[in-house]
Amino acid sequence: MAIQLKNPKIETPDVTHKIVPSVCGICPAGCGVNVHLVNGKIERLTPIKNHPHGIVCPRGMAAKEIVYSPDRILHPQRRVGARGEGKFERISWDDAYTIIVEQLHAISKKYGPEANCIYTGRGNFEFGLNEMFAPAGTVESSANAVLFPLGSPNTTGVGSLCYAAYGMIASRACFGDYIRNITEDLDNADLILIWGENPATDSSPINLRRIKKAQRRGAQVVVIDHRRSETARALRTEWLGIRPGTDGALALGMIHVLIQESLFDAQFVSEWTHGFEELRPYVADFTPARVESITGVPAERIRTLARQIAAAQGCSVLMYSGLEYSNSGVQAIRAVWILQALAGHLDVPGGKLFKMPNRLKLNRRLTDPPSAGPKPIGATEYPLYYETRKEAHAVMLPQAILHSNPYPVRSLIISGSSLLTAWPNPALWQRALAALDFLVVINRFPTADARFADLLLPATTGF
Ligand code: SF4
Q1: Phi/psi of residue 388, each to 5°?
Q2: What are the φ/ψ torsions at residue 96 (nearest 5 degrees)?
Q3: pLDDT tens digits, residue range 175-232?
Q4: Ligand 1 near 48 CB (within 6 A)
Protein backbone atom coordinates (compact mmCIF):
# COMPACT_ATOMS: atom_id res chain seq x y z
CA MET A 1 0.00 0.00 0.00
CA ALA A 2 1.36 3.46 -0.93
CA ILE A 3 1.18 6.19 1.69
CA GLN A 4 0.34 9.65 0.31
CA LEU A 5 2.07 12.44 2.23
CA LYS A 6 -0.02 15.57 2.52
CA ASN A 7 3.09 17.69 2.05
CA PRO A 8 5.81 15.67 0.33
CA LYS A 9 8.40 18.37 1.13
CA ILE A 10 8.36 17.84 4.88
CA GLU A 11 11.71 18.91 6.25
CA THR A 12 13.65 16.21 8.01
CA PRO A 13 16.94 16.73 9.83
CA ASP A 14 18.75 15.30 6.79
CA VAL A 15 16.88 16.96 3.92
CA THR A 16 16.35 20.69 3.44
CA HIS A 17 14.30 22.29 0.70
CA LYS A 18 14.63 25.86 -0.40
CA ILE A 19 13.25 27.86 -3.33
CA VAL A 20 15.36 30.80 -4.50
CA PRO A 21 14.01 33.30 -7.08
CA SER A 22 16.77 33.86 -9.60
CA VAL A 23 17.77 34.10 -13.23
CA CYS A 24 18.54 30.85 -15.03
CA GLY A 25 22.29 30.39 -15.31
CA ILE A 26 22.46 27.97 -18.22
CA CYS A 27 22.43 30.46 -21.11
CA PRO A 28 22.43 34.27 -21.30
CA ALA A 29 18.70 34.60 -22.21
CA GLY A 30 17.90 35.70 -18.66
CA CYS A 31 14.74 33.70 -17.89
CA GLY A 32 13.23 34.35 -14.47
CA VAL A 33 13.16 31.09 -12.56
CA ASN A 34 12.61 29.68 -9.11
CA VAL A 35 15.54 27.44 -8.29
CA HIS A 36 14.41 24.51 -6.16
CA LEU A 37 17.29 23.44 -3.96
CA VAL A 38 17.49 20.19 -2.04
CA ASN A 39 20.30 20.18 0.49
CA GLY A 40 21.72 23.23 -1.28
CA LYS A 41 21.86 21.57 -4.70
CA ILE A 42 19.70 22.37 -7.72
CA GLU A 43 16.84 19.92 -8.08
CA ARG A 44 14.79 21.72 -10.73
CA LEU A 45 13.77 25.11 -12.12
CA THR A 46 10.25 26.44 -12.42
CA PRO A 47 9.18 29.68 -14.13
CA ILE A 48 8.56 32.81 -12.05
CA LYS A 49 4.96 33.79 -12.68
CA ASN A 50 4.55 37.20 -14.36
CA HIS A 51 8.29 37.55 -15.09
CA PRO A 52 8.64 38.84 -18.69
CA HIS A 53 10.73 35.74 -19.40
CA GLY A 54 9.07 33.52 -16.83
CA ILE A 55 9.63 30.33 -18.75
CA VAL A 56 11.94 27.33 -18.63
CA CYS A 57 13.19 25.80 -21.88
CA PRO A 58 14.34 22.18 -22.30
CA ARG A 59 17.94 23.20 -21.54
CA GLY A 60 16.82 24.97 -18.39
CA MET A 61 14.89 21.86 -17.41
CA ALA A 62 18.16 19.94 -17.70
CA ALA A 63 20.00 22.44 -15.45
CA LYS A 64 20.64 19.84 -12.75
CA GLU A 65 22.11 17.44 -15.29
CA ILE A 66 24.30 20.17 -16.84
CA VAL A 67 25.58 21.69 -13.59
CA TYR A 68 26.43 18.41 -11.85
CA SER A 69 27.39 16.28 -14.85
CA PRO A 70 30.41 14.03 -14.18
CA ASP A 71 31.57 14.92 -17.71
CA ARG A 72 32.11 18.61 -16.90
CA ILE A 73 35.60 20.03 -17.44
CA LEU A 74 36.44 21.31 -13.97
CA HIS A 75 40.13 22.24 -14.14
CA PRO A 76 42.66 23.57 -16.66
CA GLN A 77 44.30 20.68 -18.48
CA ARG A 78 47.30 20.37 -20.79
CA ARG A 79 47.66 17.87 -23.62
CA VAL A 80 50.11 15.06 -22.82
CA GLY A 81 49.35 12.59 -25.63
CA ALA A 82 49.52 13.04 -29.37
CA ARG A 83 47.20 15.66 -30.82
CA GLY A 84 43.78 14.08 -31.32
CA GLU A 85 44.50 11.33 -28.78
CA GLY A 86 42.55 13.12 -26.05
CA LYS A 87 45.09 12.66 -23.23
CA PHE A 88 45.43 15.54 -20.78
CA GLU A 89 46.87 16.31 -17.35
CA ARG A 90 45.60 18.78 -14.79
CA ILE A 91 47.57 22.02 -14.41
CA SER A 92 47.11 25.20 -12.37
CA TRP A 93 45.42 28.34 -13.68
CA ASP A 94 48.75 30.18 -13.36
CA ASP A 95 50.44 27.61 -15.59
CA ALA A 96 47.56 27.77 -18.08
CA TYR A 97 47.83 31.57 -18.37
CA THR A 98 51.61 31.37 -18.72
CA ILE A 99 51.32 28.84 -21.55
CA ILE A 100 48.73 30.95 -23.39
CA VAL A 101 50.78 34.15 -23.10
CA GLU A 102 53.99 32.43 -24.22
CA GLN A 103 52.36 30.71 -27.17
CA LEU A 104 50.47 33.76 -28.45
CA HIS A 105 53.60 35.90 -28.23
CA ALA A 106 55.75 33.26 -29.94
CA ILE A 107 53.25 32.95 -32.80
CA SER A 108 52.96 36.74 -33.09
CA LYS A 109 56.74 37.02 -33.34
CA LYS A 110 57.04 34.33 -36.00
CA TYR A 111 53.98 35.03 -38.19
CA GLY A 112 52.58 38.39 -37.03
CA PRO A 113 49.83 38.97 -34.41
CA GLU A 114 47.10 38.31 -36.99
CA ALA A 115 48.09 34.62 -36.89
CA ASN A 116 46.18 34.38 -33.58
CA CYS A 117 42.40 33.97 -33.77
CA ILE A 118 39.50 33.54 -31.34
CA TYR A 119 36.15 31.87 -32.17
CA THR A 120 33.20 32.25 -29.80
CA GLY A 121 29.90 30.36 -29.71
CA ARG A 122 26.90 30.42 -27.44
CA GLY A 123 27.67 27.31 -25.44
CA ASN A 124 29.30 29.04 -22.49
CA PHE A 125 27.76 31.46 -20.07
CA GLU A 126 30.77 33.64 -20.86
CA PHE A 127 28.95 34.48 -24.08
CA GLY A 128 27.36 37.20 -21.96
CA LEU A 129 30.83 38.57 -21.25
CA ASN A 130 31.47 38.88 -24.96
CA GLU A 131 29.03 41.75 -24.87
CA MET A 132 31.58 43.60 -22.79
CA PHE A 133 34.47 42.83 -25.13
CA ALA A 134 32.73 43.38 -28.45
CA PRO A 135 34.45 44.94 -31.45
CA ALA A 136 33.70 48.66 -31.75
CA GLY A 137 31.78 49.88 -34.80
CA THR A 138 29.14 47.13 -34.90
CA VAL A 139 25.54 47.30 -33.73
CA GLU A 140 25.71 43.88 -32.15
CA SER A 141 28.26 41.14 -32.08
CA SER A 142 28.93 37.83 -30.40
CA ALA A 143 32.63 38.08 -31.20
CA ASN A 144 35.25 38.64 -28.52
CA ALA A 145 37.75 41.45 -29.04
CA VAL A 146 40.24 40.11 -26.50
CA LEU A 147 42.98 39.70 -29.14
CA PHE A 148 42.67 43.25 -30.52
CA PRO A 149 45.15 44.76 -28.03
CA LEU A 150 47.65 42.08 -29.07
CA GLY A 151 47.36 43.35 -32.64
CA SER A 152 45.18 40.62 -34.16
CA PRO A 153 41.95 41.61 -35.97
CA ASN A 154 40.91 37.96 -36.12
CA THR A 155 37.90 37.56 -33.91
CA THR A 156 35.09 35.44 -35.28
CA GLY A 157 32.44 32.99 -34.20
CA VAL A 158 29.03 31.53 -34.60
CA GLY A 159 27.80 34.73 -36.27
CA SER A 160 29.52 33.46 -39.43
CA LEU A 161 26.92 30.67 -39.51
CA CYS A 162 23.98 32.04 -37.65
CA TYR A 163 21.95 35.21 -37.07
CA ALA A 164 24.10 37.72 -38.98
CA ALA A 165 22.70 36.64 -42.38
CA TYR A 166 19.12 36.81 -41.11
CA GLY A 167 19.17 39.53 -38.50
CA MET A 168 21.72 41.90 -39.96
CA ILE A 169 22.37 41.38 -43.67
CA ALA A 170 19.00 40.28 -45.12
CA SER A 171 17.11 42.73 -42.93
CA ARG A 172 19.33 45.62 -43.99
CA ALA A 173 18.94 44.64 -47.64
CA CYS A 174 15.13 44.53 -47.29
CA PHE A 175 14.31 47.24 -44.79
CA GLY A 176 17.52 49.21 -44.29
CA ASP A 177 17.57 48.21 -40.63
CA TYR A 178 18.61 45.43 -38.28
CA ILE A 179 16.16 42.81 -37.05
CA ARG A 180 16.67 44.02 -33.48
CA ASN A 181 14.66 47.10 -34.51
CA ILE A 182 11.94 45.05 -36.22
CA THR A 183 9.45 42.69 -34.62
CA GLU A 184 6.40 40.57 -35.42
CA ASP A 185 3.12 41.65 -33.82
CA LEU A 186 2.10 38.12 -32.82
CA ASP A 187 -0.33 39.47 -30.25
CA ASN A 188 -2.57 41.01 -32.92
CA ALA A 189 -1.97 38.72 -35.91
CA ASP A 190 -4.80 36.68 -37.37
CA LEU A 191 -2.38 34.57 -39.42
CA ILE A 192 1.02 33.43 -38.14
CA LEU A 193 3.54 31.65 -40.35
CA ILE A 194 6.29 29.81 -38.48
CA TRP A 195 8.81 29.28 -41.23
CA GLY A 196 12.05 27.40 -40.54
CA GLU A 197 11.86 28.39 -36.90
CA ASN A 198 11.11 26.31 -33.83
CA PRO A 199 9.80 28.46 -30.97
CA ALA A 200 9.14 25.37 -28.82
CA THR A 201 12.89 24.85 -28.46
CA ASP A 202 13.95 28.49 -28.65
CA SER A 203 16.24 30.02 -26.14
CA SER A 204 14.04 31.37 -24.68
CA PRO A 205 10.74 29.80 -25.87
CA ILE A 206 8.77 32.94 -25.01
CA ASN A 207 7.13 33.19 -28.45
CA LEU A 208 5.49 29.79 -28.09
CA ARG A 209 3.42 31.15 -25.25
CA ARG A 210 2.38 34.17 -27.35
CA ILE A 211 1.43 31.96 -30.29
CA LYS A 212 -0.69 29.69 -28.09
CA LYS A 213 -2.47 32.77 -26.81
CA ALA A 214 -3.03 33.92 -30.40
CA GLN A 215 -4.46 30.50 -31.25
CA ARG A 216 -6.88 30.76 -28.34
CA ARG A 217 -8.27 34.01 -29.74
CA GLY A 218 -8.69 32.40 -33.18
CA ALA A 219 -5.48 33.18 -35.09
CA GLN A 220 -4.51 30.59 -37.66
CA VAL A 221 -0.99 29.16 -37.46
CA VAL A 222 0.86 27.39 -40.28
CA VAL A 223 4.24 25.73 -39.68
CA ILE A 224 6.49 25.47 -42.75
CA ASP A 225 9.38 23.15 -42.03
CA HIS A 226 11.10 20.15 -43.55
CA ARG A 227 10.14 18.15 -40.45
CA ARG A 228 7.14 18.07 -38.16
CA SER A 229 8.87 20.16 -35.52
CA GLU A 230 8.29 20.29 -31.78
CA THR A 231 6.42 23.54 -32.45
CA ALA A 232 4.08 21.95 -35.01
CA ARG A 233 3.33 19.19 -32.52
CA ALA A 234 2.97 21.51 -29.52
CA LEU A 235 0.53 23.75 -31.40
CA ARG A 236 -1.38 20.88 -33.09
CA THR A 237 -1.61 22.99 -36.18
CA GLU A 238 -1.13 22.65 -39.92
CA TRP A 239 2.35 21.56 -40.95
CA LEU A 240 3.53 22.16 -44.51
CA GLY A 241 6.45 19.83 -45.14
CA ILE A 242 9.02 21.33 -47.51
CA ARG A 243 12.13 19.97 -49.19
CA PRO A 244 15.18 21.42 -47.35
CA GLY A 245 16.75 24.46 -48.99
CA THR A 246 13.74 25.30 -51.21
CA ASP A 247 12.02 27.89 -49.01
CA GLY A 248 12.93 30.76 -51.34
CA ALA A 249 11.14 29.02 -54.22
CA LEU A 250 8.01 28.60 -52.10
CA ALA A 251 8.01 32.32 -51.27
CA LEU A 252 8.54 33.23 -54.94
CA GLY A 253 5.68 30.89 -55.91
CA MET A 254 3.33 32.70 -53.54
CA ILE A 255 4.54 36.09 -54.82
CA HIS A 256 3.71 34.77 -58.30
CA VAL A 257 0.13 34.07 -57.15
CA LEU A 258 -0.22 37.50 -55.50
CA ILE A 259 0.85 39.24 -58.70
CA GLN A 260 -1.09 36.98 -61.07
CA GLU A 261 -4.31 37.37 -59.08
CA SER A 262 -3.70 41.09 -58.33
CA LEU A 263 -3.77 40.41 -54.60
CA PHE A 264 -0.81 42.62 -53.72
CA ASP A 265 -0.94 46.06 -52.13
CA ALA A 266 -0.41 48.25 -55.22
CA GLN A 267 -0.32 51.53 -53.30
CA PHE A 268 2.37 50.19 -50.97
CA VAL A 269 4.37 48.98 -53.98
CA SER A 270 4.27 52.35 -55.73
CA GLU A 271 5.05 54.40 -52.61
CA TRP A 272 7.50 52.28 -50.66
CA THR A 273 9.40 49.79 -52.81
CA HIS A 274 12.21 49.56 -55.35
CA GLY A 275 12.47 46.93 -58.06
CA PHE A 276 8.89 45.69 -58.43
CA GLU A 277 9.14 45.82 -62.22
CA GLU A 278 12.21 43.54 -62.06
CA LEU A 279 10.48 41.23 -59.58
CA ARG A 280 7.39 40.69 -61.75
CA PRO A 281 9.20 38.93 -64.65
CA TYR A 282 11.54 37.17 -62.21
CA VAL A 283 8.66 35.33 -60.49
CA ALA A 284 6.75 34.66 -63.74
CA ASP A 285 8.37 31.22 -64.00
CA PHE A 286 7.61 30.29 -60.41
CA THR A 287 4.18 28.88 -61.16
CA PRO A 288 2.56 26.83 -58.38
CA ALA A 289 3.01 23.65 -60.46
CA ARG A 290 6.73 24.29 -60.93
CA VAL A 291 7.17 25.29 -57.29
CA GLU A 292 5.47 22.05 -56.23
CA SER A 293 8.10 20.13 -58.20
CA ILE A 294 10.87 22.10 -56.43
CA THR A 295 9.52 22.20 -52.89
CA GLY A 296 7.14 19.25 -52.58
CA VAL A 297 4.38 21.58 -51.33
CA PRO A 298 1.15 20.90 -53.29
CA ALA A 299 0.41 23.57 -55.93
CA GLU A 300 -3.13 24.05 -54.68
CA ARG A 301 -1.90 24.76 -51.14
CA ILE A 302 0.63 27.26 -52.53
CA ARG A 303 -2.28 29.11 -54.17
CA THR A 304 -4.60 28.98 -51.16
CA LEU A 305 -1.91 29.98 -48.67
CA ALA A 306 -0.95 32.98 -50.84
CA ARG A 307 -4.63 34.01 -50.85
CA GLN A 308 -4.85 33.57 -47.07
CA ILE A 309 -1.78 35.76 -46.57
CA ALA A 310 -3.30 38.43 -48.82
CA ALA A 311 -6.67 38.26 -47.05
CA ALA A 312 -5.28 38.37 -43.49
CA GLN A 313 -5.69 41.57 -41.48
CA GLY A 314 -2.24 41.06 -40.01
CA CYS A 315 0.18 38.28 -40.95
CA SER A 316 3.25 37.73 -38.77
CA VAL A 317 6.13 35.59 -39.98
CA LEU A 318 8.46 33.94 -37.48
CA MET A 319 11.52 32.81 -39.34
CA TYR A 320 15.12 31.95 -38.61
CA SER A 321 17.80 29.35 -39.06
CA GLY A 322 15.81 26.91 -41.22
CA LEU A 323 16.20 29.36 -44.08
CA GLU A 324 19.48 30.87 -43.02
CA TYR A 325 21.44 27.60 -42.87
CA SER A 326 21.41 27.06 -46.60
CA ASN A 327 23.55 28.23 -49.47
CA SER A 328 21.06 30.91 -50.51
CA GLY A 329 19.80 31.85 -47.07
CA VAL A 330 19.88 35.63 -47.41
CA GLN A 331 17.93 35.52 -50.68
CA ALA A 332 15.35 33.03 -49.33
CA ILE A 333 14.77 35.24 -46.29
CA ARG A 334 14.40 38.29 -48.51
CA ALA A 335 11.83 36.47 -50.67
CA VAL A 336 9.68 35.68 -47.61
CA TRP A 337 9.83 39.27 -46.37
CA ILE A 338 8.97 40.58 -49.85
CA LEU A 339 5.93 38.28 -49.82
CA GLN A 340 4.88 39.66 -46.44
CA ALA A 341 5.42 43.24 -47.62
CA LEU A 342 3.54 42.83 -50.93
CA ALA A 343 0.57 41.38 -49.06
CA GLY A 344 0.38 44.58 -47.00
CA HIS A 345 1.69 43.40 -43.65
CA LEU A 346 4.40 45.95 -42.95
CA ASP A 347 3.79 48.51 -40.24
CA VAL A 348 0.24 47.30 -39.55
CA PRO A 349 -1.28 45.66 -36.45
CA GLY A 350 -0.57 41.94 -36.56
CA GLY A 351 2.22 42.32 -39.12
CA LYS A 352 5.84 43.39 -39.05
CA LEU A 353 6.49 46.37 -36.79
CA PHE A 354 9.40 48.79 -36.78
CA LYS A 355 10.76 49.98 -33.45
CA MET A 356 12.83 52.98 -32.51
CA PRO A 357 16.47 52.10 -33.25
CA ASN A 358 18.37 50.89 -30.23
CA ARG A 359 21.49 49.01 -29.39
CA LEU A 360 22.05 46.43 -26.68
CA LYS A 361 21.43 48.01 -23.32
CA LEU A 362 24.33 46.26 -21.65
CA ASN A 363 27.14 48.44 -20.43
CA ARG A 364 29.50 47.32 -23.14
CA ARG A 365 33.13 47.95 -23.34
CA LEU A 366 33.72 48.26 -27.07
CA THR A 367 37.26 47.67 -28.26
CA ASP A 368 38.74 49.23 -31.37
CA PRO A 369 40.39 46.83 -33.82
CA PRO A 370 44.15 47.22 -34.36
CA SER A 371 44.84 50.40 -36.33
CA ALA A 372 47.68 48.81 -38.32
CA GLY A 373 48.19 45.46 -40.01
CA PRO A 374 46.00 43.37 -42.30
CA LYS A 375 42.22 43.13 -42.19
CA PRO A 376 40.65 40.00 -40.70
CA ILE A 377 40.41 36.93 -42.91
CA GLY A 378 37.32 36.99 -45.13
CA ALA A 379 37.06 40.80 -45.13
CA THR A 380 37.73 40.87 -48.89
CA GLU A 381 35.62 37.84 -49.82
CA TYR A 382 32.65 38.81 -47.61
CA PRO A 383 32.70 42.63 -47.57
CA LEU A 384 29.09 43.09 -46.43
CA TYR A 385 29.63 40.69 -43.54
CA TYR A 386 32.81 42.51 -42.60
CA GLU A 387 31.18 45.92 -42.85
CA THR A 388 28.31 44.71 -40.66
CA ARG A 389 30.19 42.70 -38.05
CA LYS A 390 33.75 44.06 -38.09
CA GLU A 391 35.09 40.54 -37.65
CA ALA A 392 36.67 37.66 -39.56
CA HIS A 393 34.48 35.21 -41.47
CA ALA A 394 35.08 31.77 -40.00
CA VAL A 395 34.45 29.97 -43.28
CA MET A 396 37.92 31.21 -44.31
CA LEU A 397 39.70 29.60 -41.34
CA PRO A 398 40.57 26.23 -42.96
CA GLN A 399 42.31 27.84 -45.93
CA ALA A 400 44.18 30.28 -43.68
CA ILE A 401 45.32 27.44 -41.41
CA LEU A 402 46.06 24.87 -44.12
CA HIS A 403 47.25 27.10 -46.98
CA SER A 404 48.26 30.41 -45.33
CA ASN A 405 45.70 32.11 -47.55
CA PRO A 406 45.47 35.13 -47.32
CA TYR A 407 48.01 34.75 -44.51
CA PRO A 408 48.78 32.12 -41.86
CA VAL A 409 46.52 31.54 -38.86
CA ARG A 410 48.45 29.38 -36.41
CA SER A 411 46.59 29.62 -33.09
CA LEU A 412 42.92 29.39 -32.24
CA ILE A 413 40.92 29.85 -29.06
CA ILE A 414 37.49 28.18 -29.31
CA SER A 415 35.10 29.27 -26.58
CA GLY A 416 31.62 27.79 -26.14
CA SER A 417 31.47 26.09 -29.50
CA SER A 418 32.55 23.08 -31.51
CA LEU A 419 33.69 23.73 -35.05
CA LEU A 420 33.69 20.02 -35.85
CA THR A 421 30.02 19.61 -35.02
CA ALA A 422 28.76 23.05 -36.12
CA TRP A 423 30.27 23.42 -39.59
CA PRO A 424 29.75 21.41 -42.77
CA ASN A 425 32.65 19.24 -43.97
CA PRO A 426 33.99 18.11 -40.57
CA ALA A 427 36.88 16.24 -42.23
CA LEU A 428 38.24 19.57 -43.52
CA TRP A 429 37.87 21.20 -40.11
CA GLN A 430 39.53 18.22 -38.46
CA ARG A 431 42.55 18.62 -40.75
CA ALA A 432 42.61 22.33 -39.94
CA LEU A 433 42.47 21.87 -36.15
CA ALA A 434 45.14 19.17 -36.33
CA ALA A 435 47.44 21.51 -38.29
CA LEU A 436 47.39 24.39 -35.77
CA ASP A 437 50.43 25.26 -33.68
CA PHE A 438 48.29 26.03 -30.65
CA LEU A 439 44.62 25.34 -29.84
CA VAL A 440 42.78 26.33 -26.67
CA VAL A 441 39.26 24.96 -26.05
CA ILE A 442 37.12 26.62 -23.38
CA ASN A 443 33.94 24.71 -22.66
CA ARG A 444 31.78 23.11 -20.02
CA PHE A 445 32.21 19.73 -21.65
CA PRO A 446 34.91 18.02 -23.71
CA THR A 447 33.67 18.69 -27.25
CA ALA A 448 34.80 16.96 -30.44
CA ASP A 449 37.31 19.81 -30.89
CA ALA A 450 38.75 19.24 -27.42
CA ARG A 451 40.58 16.13 -28.63
CA PHE A 452 42.80 18.41 -30.74
CA ALA A 453 43.40 20.99 -28.00
CA ASP A 454 46.73 21.81 -26.43
CA LEU A 455 44.92 23.37 -23.52
CA LEU A 456 41.44 22.70 -22.11
CA LEU A 457 39.87 25.31 -19.86
CA PRO A 458 36.64 24.88 -17.88
CA ALA A 459 33.66 27.15 -18.49
CA THR A 460 31.19 28.01 -15.77
CA THR A 461 27.42 28.20 -15.66
CA GLY A 462 25.70 31.21 -14.13
CA PHE A 463 24.63 29.14 -11.10
S1 SF4 B 1 16.46 29.99 -22.49
FE2 SF4 B 1 16.53 28.12 -21.27
S3 SF4 B 1 18.68 27.86 -20.71
FE4 SF4 B 1 18.44 29.96 -21.41
S5 SF4 B 1 18.07 31.17 -19.56
FE6 SF4 B 1 16.03 30.58 -20.38
S7 SF4 B 1 15.52 28.65 -19.35
FE8 SF4 B 1 17.72 28.99 -19.05
Answers
A1: -80, -40
A2: -60, -45
A3: 988 888 899 999 999 999 999 999 998 877 889 989 999 999 999 999 999 999 999 9
A4: no
Ligand 1 midpoint to CA 238 (Å): 28
Nearest alpha carbon to residue 147 among 415, 403, 341: 415
Q: Is the CB of 208 under 6 A from ligand 1?
A: no
CB of 25 shorter than 6 A to ligand 1: no
| 44 Cβ inside 6 Å of ligand 1 | no
pLDDT of 134 strictly over 60: yes
What number does the ligand 1 atom closest to the CA of 204 have?
A: 1
Protein residue whose Cα sits closest to atom 4 of ligand 1 = 27
Cβ atoms 160, 377 nearer than 8 A = no
Tell me the per-residue pLDDT of 293-352, one tens digit each, with 9 for 90 and over.
Answer: 999 999 999 999 999 999 999 999 999 889 998 888 999 999 999 999 999 999 999 999
On whether both 349 and 376 belong to a single domain, the answer is no
Relative to the CA of 33, which ligand 1 atom is closest? 7
Sign, CA dihedral 270-275-279-280, equals positive
Residues 185 and 318 in one domain: yes
- Here the CATH number for the domain that contains residue 319 is 3.40.228.10
CA distance 390 to 145: 10
pLDDT level of residue 156 (50, 70, 90 thresholds): very high
Regarding the beta carbon of 57 and ligand 1, being less than 6 Å apart is answered yes
Mean pLDDT of the chain: 91
**Do residue 341 and residue 446 come from a single domain?**
no
Could you tell me the residue range of the domain that residue 274 belongs to?
178-354
Q: Both 344 and 370 in a single domain?
A: no
C-beta of 28 in contact with ligand 1 (< 6 A): no
Question: Confidence class of residue 41 from pLDDT cuts 50, 70 and 90?
Answer: very high
- Contact residues for 223 (Cβ-Cβ < 8 A; gap 6+): 194, 229, 231, 232, 235, 237, 238, 239, 240
CB of 60 closer than 6 A to ligand 1?
yes
For ligand 1, the distance from its centroid to the CA atom of residue 118, given in whole angstroms, is 25
